[in-house]
Every structure is written in structure tokens, then in C-alpha cells.
Amino acid sequence: MNIDTLLPMLLTVIAAxxxxxxxxIGELVTEKSGVLNLGVEGMMLVGAVIAFAVTVGTGxxxxxxxxxxxxxxxxxLVFGLLTLTLMANQVATGLALTIFGIGVSSLIGSSYIGxxxxxxxxxxxxxLSDIPVLGPLLFGHDILVYASVAITVLVAWFLKSSRAxxxxxxxxxxxxxxxxxxxxxxxxRYLAVMFGGLCSGxxxxxxxxxxxxxxxxxxxxxxxxxxxxxxxxxxxxPWRVLGGAxxxxxxxxxxxxxxxxxxxxxxAQVMNMLPYLATIIVLTVISAGPWRGRLDAPACLGKPFRPxx
Length: 309
Prior knowledge:
Layout: H1 3-32, H2 40-58, H3 61-85, H4 90-109, H5 134-139, H6 143-161, H7 163-173, H8 175-180, H9 185-211, H10 223-233, H11 238-261, H12 268-272, H13 274-286
């Protein structure tokens, strides 16, 4: 495989990894606060269709991305209201949110099927973008690719080095203890859930404005579930989420290249299963034997909290 073949493949891997990274890093912050939101897929779909609709209507991709972020936050607030205020079951509510997102996105997007939109512009950095091989690989992407990496860096710093990050982790590890020393557990969790919704909405915007610049019903194709698995795969550590997103992005693109190569004797349906099969295998391995001790799930993950009256 020469560089002319390898470079486009690597660029495609980066594109495939970006929505996974955005959604997973948002869910990581949510889960660090002790909240399990399984509605990532639904928030991504709503973000994707809202971003597309606003971009088509206004001609501005930036407005589309902002609208997608607010759409993700709005859905996350619905989840927060039901689970944090009304004490509904987090798993059931998250699943309902995904089903709701699938339905709403299909309804809104029905009039946009087949409508073209200009792909999100690549940022050209004079001098750096023109470097052979490394230029396109490192400095030839759109704003959301760089934003995904920047958000990961900021989240890693926030959780490890900031006072607010320490409070967030404390709430996720022992909500009663955090409450007893005066921290507003519900407020912290609302903010974490909103951040997760924001990232999921932007991840959806990336799909409809850059990765596949069009609206296709169900275009997330299970990426929200893979993002959820990535958080566990990364043991709730931001840098591992970054690496895991690119690994899973690579698996996704590998199966497409293998199908395109032909002659390997494996049915296309089996090749399409590879990213999801890899997810199952990874989760099985890290949940068994000596790997189990490396899982650092927040102690209060998924557990409801009712402040003492």
C-alpha cells in the first residue's frame, strides 16, 4: 500500500472517528457525574437533522452547528427533568429518548431527503496545510475535527486539574457525601447532562454537514451506541476515549475498504457487522478476568439521588 492509497484512508478514519469522539466525550462527562444517559443515539439524530435544516434554510453551517448543539441540550434537559427531578428510571428514559429522537428526526427530515448541502469547509492553514503528507493529515480538516480534539483536551484537564472537575467526580463517586458538605448534586448533574447533550448534538451535525453532507433517515447507524461502549472501553478516561474513537473509526473504514477490494470471500453483511462485533468483543474482554479490575465506573452511576428534605 503506497502513500497515495494510505493517506486518503487515514483521512477517512479521522472523519469516521470524529462523531464517535464528540458523542463519547460528552457521555463520559455525564457518566462521571453519576448519570447514565442511553439517549445518545437519539440526540445525535436530532442534532443531525436540525443542523441540516438550519444550514439549508440560512446557508450558514455555523448556525446549523449552533442549532444542533442547542437541540442536543434541549433533549438532554428533557432527560434531566425526567430522571433528576421526577426520579424516573435512567435506563428506560434513555431508551425512550433514543426512540423519540429517531421519530422526531424522521418527521423533520422527511422534507429534506435528496436536498444537497455544501460540505463543511476545510480549514486551510497557510504553510502547514501545504506540507506533503503531514499537511493534509494534520492540518487539512474542518473545524469540528479540531473541536473534537480540543474538547477532549479540555475535558481531560477539567476532570484532573480543576476544582469544578473534582466536584463533578465527587458527585459521581458519592452523591450523599458531596451533598453533605454543601454541593448541589442535582445542579452538577444537570450541567453534566447538558454538556453530554451539547456534544451529541454537535456529533450529529458533523454527520449531516461533513461526513455525509446530506440528510438520510437513521444516518447515525448505531454510532450513539458505539459511543456509549467507548466510554466503558476507555474506563472513563478522556485520553483513552480519544484513542478508542480512532480505533473504532479505523475498524469502520477497514470494512468499507475490504468490501471495495472484493475477492476476499466474506459476505458484505458480515463486513458491515465488524464495528459492532468489535464493540461486543472489546466489552467482553475488559469485563472479564484481570481486565475487570481496571474498570473505574463512577460508584453512583445510574443510581437516583433524592436530596434530604
